[in-house]
Specification:
With 145 residues, this protein is α+β, with helices and mostly antiparallel strands. 23% of the residues lie in helices and 26% in strands. It has helices spanning 7-19, 26-29, 34-39, 48-58, and strands at 21-22, 61-66, 75-79, 100-107, 110-117, 120-127. The relative contact order is 0.22.
Length: 145
């Protein structure tokens, strides 16, 4: 079963595509241990063309896997042409993608991530950092980059 993104989900994903940067960044790297630093591959800078492609592909995704944790509104997404493709990851985990970019932001004290797999948004995650429960994504104007 699948359905279209809500207007809020679409607005948040679009805002992330237009403004967020890859994770981890140099600030995160400063907190890494020596072995983590040695193993870290710095993310490539995001090009304007990538953002245009991702924005275009956002129009083709549908919600396929809502998080059922009870404390967040996170959603898994797949292109409508691949909703039945079980090898396509829509949970932010492993999958059949060749290239993954994770865009990072914060909102209301929560971590906000957008996973882009092979140029298509695949998982929009709002991870609360405390016991607060979120039933929907906060408005895009509150997102911090």
């Amino acid at each position: 079963m699948y359905w279209p993104l809500t207007p809020r989900e679409h607005e948040v994903a679009l805002t992330m595509i237009r403004h967020a940067h890859p994770s981890p960044d140099d600030q995160d790297r400063a907190t890494f241990t020596d072995p983590q630093r040695e193993a870290w591959d710095q993310p490539a800078p995001i090009t304007p063309q990538q953002r245009v492609t991702w924005e275009s592909n956002l129009a083709e995704v549908v919600v396929t896997n809502p998080c059922e944790c009870g404390s967040c509104p996170s959603i898994g997404m797949r292109p409508v042409t691949r909703v039945d493709d079980e090898s396509r990851d829509d949970t932010g985990g492993q999958g059949d993608f060749a290239n993954r970019v994770i865009l990072d932001a914060t909102v209301d004290g929560c971590m906000l991530l957008l996973f882009i797999d092979d140029d298509s948004p695949s998982y929009l995650e709002l991870a609360p950092t405390d016991d607060e429960v979120f039933t929907e994504f906060p408005p895009p104007e509150r997102i911090l980059f």
